[in-house]
Write a structure and sequence with these properties.
Layout: H1 4-17, H2 24-41, E1 53-55, E2 58-60, H3 62-68, E3 82-83, E4 90-91, H4 98-111, H5 116-123, H6 129-133, E5 140-141, H7 144-166
Helix pairs in contact: 1-2, 1-4, 2-4, 2-5, 2-7
């Protein structure tokens, strides 16, 4: 299992390798989706060192949002960094688990061409974990079990769609 920093860095690496720019808003939405896919496909979180909250513009991982908020709506141009436990050394964590990398890559392949605005719209649809959790002026935690149930249905529908397309 990775950390929010290692997952963010994997998305940044994949986007750079694909010659795509990644904004903070799109990054946190992709990380939310990847967390959902991991909960469904791997039966475990992709990261567990932070939670996902329901904010006005959709699901947000607070630590990632705050780390990259200085980019505003511009593309992110640096990696996520972590300070060691003794507060002496910075590092750029990376994902090491191959299954985690596959979840990030799957998420990227599904949504790389979807704009941040469209990802906001997707996460705001009725019945989404965000829509069931959001309360104005409150940053409420979206429960992983709620995310898992939603993405279990998503994965079943995706599987059906892929079978129809290959038939």
């Amino acid at each position: 299992m990775g950390t929010t920093s290692s997952v963010a860095n994997e998305f940044l690496k994949v986007s750079k390798n694909s010659n795509y720019e990644l904004t903070n808003m799109k990054l946190v939405k992709l990380m939310y989706i990847a967390q959902g896919l991991s909960l469904s496909l791997l039966e475990r979180p992709l990261f567990d060192n932070d939670h996902i909250e329901a904010w006005k513009f959709g699901p947000v991982i607070p630590s990632v949002y705050h780390e990259f908020k200085h980019f505003k709506s511009e593309p992110i141009t640096s990696n996520s960094v972590m300070l060691d436990s003794e507060w002496k050394f910075l590092s750029e964590p990376s994902l090491t688990d191959e299954e985690d990398k596959k979840v990030v890559l799957l998420t990227w392949q599904l949504y790389k061409d979807v704009s941040a605005k469209d990802l906001v719209d997707l996460t705001h649809m009725p019945g989404t974990p965000w829509s069931l959790t959001y309360s104005p002026d409150q940053n409420r935690v979206i429960n992983n079990e709620l995310i898992k149930r939603y993405y279990d249905k998503f994965v079943v529908n995706l599987d059906k769609q892929l079978k129809l397309e290959s038939a």
